[in-house]
Specification:
alpha/beta; 15 strands; about 425 residues; FAD/NAD(P)-binding domain
Length: about 425
Amino acid sequence: MAVDTPARIAILGAGPIGLETALYARFLGYDVDIYERGRVCEHIRRWSHVRMFSPFGLNASPLGIAALVAQEPTWRVPAADALLTGAEFLEQYLLPLASSDLIEDYLHLETEVLAIAKTEALKGELFQQEERGDEDFRLLVRDKSGAERYAEADVVIDATGVFGQPNSLGPGGLPALGERDGADQLERGLPDVQGADRVHFAEKHVAVIGEGFSAATNVIALTELAKRYRQTRVTWITRSSGHGEGPMRRIANDQLPERDRIAATANALANSDQVAWLPESVVRAVSRSNENGTWALQLAGSATQELVVDQVIANVGYRPDSAIYRELQVDECPATDGPARLSSMLTAQGATDCLSVTAGVPDSLLTSEPNFYVLGAKSYGRRSNFLLLNGIRQIRELFKIIGDRDSLDLYKTIGGVQL
């Protein structure tokens, strides 16, 4: 059933996908509220020094570009093949988009959505009944002063991402012994090891844990730092034995050359004397000395030993937080924690190269709760291969569902580009 304008859509998260979703909705004439518990694109700000491996043309929508050109004719569009840093992407595209007339007045910053429910029906009521879809949503919202209030919406779209919920270090996904006591002291992201955070890593022994692109990026940055600060040491701990040539799985004929360069460089480093690579190893216990701040890692597996290091970077991935929609009827994939239907589609298509994964099957975006949707990285659950291009494609397919119009495509109609 179509949700006609001017229905109210609540969008959770003002990251790239939240902003793009709001823009699409506003162009169609929907009323929107964009709730963001921090600043616009808060998580990108944390790795703003890192160069993205996907080019600008795959990270921005044709609609967003058209909107900014229309609002400010002097705005310069970055080159489609430009590999921007997070800071450049923010300054040249995302922040202008957030400040545009279509979005700015609908942003509720430093405002957190604590919980979502139906306005009347409890979680166990009207199960799989059409009447449940006729009922609006009620959101419990807390602003920066700490005051709580209720808000209502006809449609809710969760684009809050996953970066606030890191996975645990220990075997089988459990917290390592002692991890919960010192979890807030562990670095889990992409620190600016060659810039603002250099003092914490230069001339130090650093353990990097994980085998994804965040870990690879950190390993590369640390070895570059070691060229200037010779006492800097890097130990790379991975759970698997690697993928032939090293820790990183490379994609055949990768459509993103910079992604392949990172994988190849990291693999070469892992097999060099610049990095001590410990494959098939997991962290069983972790503790930090109160005297000198060093970390003691008890490793199990092929490298069973106690490893004492100065710094730890835990790049073991993230998982979605479903607590805010606990009162809704949302099925979750038992393997990924993402929405069950989308996760099933990703499994069926394979997830080796995210460029080939589209949201072209409309049912894949449906959750078991009518008019509630999860977009962006959170929709991929624990999978780490989400790209912004996939989120932009999701937005287009989502509004075909919301508007019940299979031919609806603002990217082609206004932006002039068929994604």
